[in-house]
Give the backbone structure.
Amino acid sequence: MNYNIKGTQLDISDELRTYAERKLAAADKFLIGDPTAHANIELQHLPEGRSGKYRAEFTVSASGAVYRAECWGATMHEALDAVGQELVEELSRNKKKKQSVLRRTSVKVKEYLRGWRDTV
């Protein structure tokens, strides 16, 4: 999967880059076989005055769909942990929805064919 990492008011260190890549890799298993998958990772540090000073955002576009997750945290690692889990949950929910539709459709086709076979 191709990805871009952007830091706003924050320097992206090698350690932070590899940590974000690791969190994105957990979501990559839902996008296997999709050569058009692309992720934008935005990391931001806000000045004092907010309870969560760090923001992490993952935006993944794949097969014409856009999946987005955003979380705040006291540390960047905390924000990345939360946003990685949120993105995995969204992709998992979408996968389950597609499988459910496929199963319901296949059951209807099977019932139709059984009915057609009985009338012939």
